[in-house]
Amino acid sequence: MTIDLSVAFQSKSTFDSEVNGKEPCLGGQLREQAVWVDESICIGCRYCAHVATNTFVIEPHLGRSRVIRQDGDSTQLIQEAIGTCPVNCIHWVPFEQLDELRAQLDGMNLQDLGKLPQVSRRINRQKS
Predict the structure, then answer these.
(1) In CATH, what number is assigned to the domain containing residue 45?
(2) Structurally, how many domains does the chain consist of?
(3) Could you report the per-residue pLDDT of 55-90, keeping only the tens digit for each?
(4) Nearest alpha carbon to residue 42 among 66, 69, 70, 76
(5) Residue 30, domain member (yes or no)
(6) Cα separation values, 17 from 26, 29, 96, Å
(7) For residue 93, what is the enclosing H or E element?
(8) Among 38, 56, 57, 84, which one has the highest count of C-beta atoms within 10 angstroms of its own C-beta?
(9) Is there a contact between 93 and 64 (Cβ–Cβ < 8 Å)?
(10) Which parts of the chain sit beneath pLDDT 50?
(11) Residue 89 located in a structural domain
C-alpha cells in the first residue's frame, strides 16, 4: 500500500469565512458582551473575586475589583458573581465600549479604598 503524500498539499490552509470574534478562543467560545466593573462605585468587598476567581481580581493600588480575563470563568459563574455585588457595579457591556469606559475611568481621580481621605488642614478642637 502506497500513500500519496501530495494530497496534504492540495487541501486549503485558510478558511472561507472571515474572523468575526466569536470563534473558539483558548478552548472556549467568546461572548457577545464583555463584563465590566465600574471601579468608581466599587467598594472593594471582594465578593466577585471570591466567586469568579479567574475573571475578577482586586486591583492592588486602589483596592477595587477589576476584570482580568473575559474568558476566565463560565457565563453562569460570572453572572453569579455579578449577583453578589452589593453596589451593582458589575455590568455586561458591548466589547466596543471597553476602551471608552476605561478612558473615562482613567480620567477620574479615584482614591485608594484603604487610605484615609487627604485633608489640607486639621480641625483644632479645644481640649477641656
Answers:
(1) 3.30.70.20
(2) 1
(3) 999 988 888 999 998 888 999 999 999 999 999 999
(4) 66
(5) no
(6) 20, 17, 22
(7) strand 90-94
(8) 56
(9) no
(10) 11, 13, 15-16, 21-28
(11) yes
Beta pairing class for 56-58 and 24-25? unpaired
CA angle 10, 16, 22 (to 5 degrees): 130
Q: Is 22 among the domain residues?
A: no
Dihedral of alpha carbons 14, 18, 22, 26, sign? positive
Nearest CA among 85, 106, 84 for reference residue 43: 85
Contact status, residue 81 vs residue 91, Cβ threshold 8 Å: no
What type of residue is 63? G
Q: Domain range holding 79?
A: 38-109
Please enumerate in sequence order all residues whose Cβ is within 8 A of that of 41, keeping only pairs 6 or more positions apart, or say none. Answer: 87, 89
Measure the CA–CA gap between 89 and 9, rounded to whole angstroms.
53
Alpha helices in the chain, H assignment, sequence order: 47-51, 75-84, 98-106
In a domain, 16, yes or no: no
